[in-house]
Amino acid sequence: MSHSALPPILLIDDDPLVLETLKDLCASMDCKRQVQHLDTRNAFEAAADPDIGLIICDYRFPYSSGVSFIEQVRQRGIETPVLFISGAPDSDAVLKAAVLPRTGFLSKPFTIQRFRDAIRSLLDPTE
After folding, report:
1. Which of 24, 27, 38, 49 ranks highest by number of CB atoms within 10 Å?
2. What is the pTM for the complete model shown?
């Protein structure tokens, strides 16, 4: 498995501590640039950035869901791979996320290895 640098990543989570942890994890995988948002409402512009190679998005927000955000992103023709992270995944959530193309799902708590594997499989599905 190649361990090349990660492309720029868009991180969206309403918990600043989770964002900080995700940022550190991505940095440890040689990701030079992360764009952070605390909610999905302001993240559309960032998601449309053609340099972004991966979106890591919380599954549930106080006012909306990560899936509805990604559905809107997909409707705009943006096919960036997405990794959903959830502390309280329900089976509906996982099923909804699973049918979206180029989408992974990781439930909290997760190990660093599972996080890395999930990212690698999204970025290089042939591995």
Report:
1. 38
2. 0.89
